[in-house]
Design brief:
The protein has 318 residues and is an alpha/beta fold. It has three domains: 7-101, Elongation Factor Tu (Ef-tu), domain 3 (Beta Barrel); 112-221, Nucleotide-binding domain of ferredoxin-NADP reductase (FNR) module (Rossmann fold, 3-Layer(aba) Sandwich), CATH 3.40.50; 235-316, Beta-grasp domain (Ubiquitin-like (UB roll)), CATH 3.10.20. Helices cover 16% and strands 30% of the residues. The chain contains six helices and 18 strands. The strands form four sheets. The protein has a six-stranded antiparallel β-sheet with strand order 4-3-6-1-2-5, with helices on one face. A five-stranded parallel β-sheet has the order 9-8-7-10-11, with helices on both faces. The longest helix is centred in the middle third of the chain and has 13 residues, at 195-207. The two termini are 16 Å apart.
């Protein structure tokens, strides 16, 4: 599920997109070709000793060997990762990246692709638009923001051969259901942005529509959890490979319990979004609260940062 190869990169370009969003271009520090990626993929960036964060790739996948582009929104009241990156990232800065993942891929069977991004949520949509253009596949791109000054990639959007529908006067003003009604039945919808925006679009297209979109044709990527998960009762983790037993008390995450026992587990977003802490499980009744796994994948994997357990024990492949 992961290409876990650490690569040293340096920043070759910085572009201010809005008052809080900048685009950064990574090139290989040693001049090697970077690994290929598919539209919707993200990388993990080691910012410093305290923060590692996942960022969607927004550059054209056909240019992957030469460079990766990401866009980062500075969250002044966030958990600190984006502020640290904005402070450290300048032309010539060196970072380590790893774990090329894609939990937001394009469908291979859709007759049409509807790409809807709000603000920083436009990042994966750009890579998707590049790919669909190269494949000569039909798509519609909707770019939303709370005003023209807050629309990232405005120059890039205007210079591309894509038809872009702008929504700059408030997200509630746009009728996504009407847009969807004029597209082929076999349309897949991809939505990325703030939770409230995603819920609005999903309500119009899937929940409240008189001709609802099938759920298997709906795809979303979030940057924050849908809600704060409820606590699990205390349970025990059995680590099959190391034959250890770890207690997880009420209100404690599996990651925290493992770290307390001296067992290193990779974490990046710590919200069940990026997939960095996925581990195979067996023998138990896990509670899944992630936003990166398909239902079929949950039969095999659990996100340790946000998952829980209904049963008294859960076996992990650690």
């Amino acid at each position: 599920m992961t290409e876990d190869k650490k690569i040293q990169v340096r920043i070759s370009e910085v572009e201010v997109l809005t008052g809080s969003i900048c685009r950064y271009r990574f090139v290989s520090l040693h001049g090697d070709a970077l690994p290929s990626f598919s539209a919707g993929a993200h990388i993990e960036v080691v910012i410093n000793d305290d923060f590692t964060r996942a960022y969607s790739l927004c550059s054209d996948p056909s240019d992957a060997a030469a460079y990766y582009d990401i866009a980062v929104k500075r969250e002044d009241h966030g958990r600190g990762g984006s502020k640290a990156f904005h402070q450290l990232a300048e032309i010539g800065s060196v970072f380590t990246i790893s774990s090329l993942n894609n939990y937001f891929p394009l469908s291979e069977t859709a007759e049409h692709h509807l790409l809807i991004g709000a603000g920083i949520g436009l990042t994966p949509m750009l890579a998707m638009a590049h790919t669909l253009t190269a494949q000569h596949k039909a798509f519609t791109l909707v770019a939303c923001a709370s005003g023209e000054a807050n629309l990232p990639f405005s120059a890039q959007l205007s210079s591309q051969p894509w038809s872009v529908q702008l929504c700059l006067s408030g997200r509630a003003e746009f009728n996504f259901a009407a847009l969807l009604a004029n597209l082929p039945k076999k349309v897949d919808v991809y939505c990325c942005g703030p939770n409230g925006f995603i819920e609005l679009v999903k309500d119009q297209c899937v929940v409240s529509s008189h001709d609802p979109l099938p759920l298997e044709q709906w795809h979303e990527e979030r940057f924050t959890p849908i809600s704060t998960p409820a606590d699990s009762d205390s349970f025990e983790l059995y680590l099959r490979q190391s034959e250890q037993r770890i207690s997880v008390v009420t209100g404690e995450s599996m990651v925290d319990a493992l770290h307390k026992a001296g067992i290193k587990v990779d974490t990046v977003c710590e919200q069940g979004i990026c997939g960095s802490c996925l581990v195979e499980w067996s023998d138990g009744e896990p509670i899944h609260r992630d936003q990166c796994l398909e239902d079929t994948e949950r039969d095999e994997y659990i996100a340790l940062c946000c998952g829980g357990c209904h049963s008294q024990s859960l076996t992990l492949e650690l």
